[in-house]
Amino acid sequence: MDAMETWCAITTNNSRQLRRYSEVNQLNVEFLRELSDVRVSIIRKEADIESIAERVYELSNNGDIGLQNTDDLHRAKKKLKFEKERLVELKCRNAELEVLAVQQQFLRGLTDV
Fold first, then answer.
1. Dihedral-angle region of residue 112 (phi above 0 means left; psi in -120 to 50 means alpha; beta otherwise)
2. pLDDT tens digits for 4-55?
3. Domain boundaries, the chain
4. Where are the alpha helices (DSSP H) in the chain?
5. How would you class 92 by CB atoms within 10 Å of its CB: exposed for 0-12, middle for 13-18, buried for 19 or more?
6. d(CA 81, CA 64)
7. Is the pTM of this model over 0.90?
8. Is the distance from CB of 97 to CB of 86 less than 8 angstroms?
9. What DSSP state is assigned to residue 113?
10. Rounded to an integer, what distance in angstroms lies between the CA atom of residue 45 and that of residue 51?
C-alpha cells in the first residue's frame, strides 16, 4: 500500500467516524429535546389541573345550585379526571426517558433526575 492509498484509507475512515459521531450527536439532541418537552408538559399539566380543581371547588361551594351550575360542575370534574390521567401518562413517559438516559449515561450533569 503506497502513501496515497494509506492517506485515502485514513481519510475515508475519519469521514465515517465523523458521520457516525454526527448521527449519534443528533440522536442525543433529539432525545434530550423530547425529555425537555415532556418535563415542560408535566409542569403545564399540573398548572392546568390546579386551575380546574379551583373551578370545581368554586362550583361545588356555590350556594346557587342550578341546572347550568350542575352541568358546569360535571364538565369540570370530567376534565379534571382527564387531565390527571394525561399527567400520569406524561410522568410515565418522563420516567421511561430518564431510565433510558441513565442507561445511556446522558444525564451525568443534570439535576433533579
1. left
2. 566 555 566 656 665 666 666 777 888 889 999 999 999 999 999 999 999 9
3. 3-103
4. 3-60, 67-104
5. exposed
6. 24
7. no
8. no
9. -
10. 10
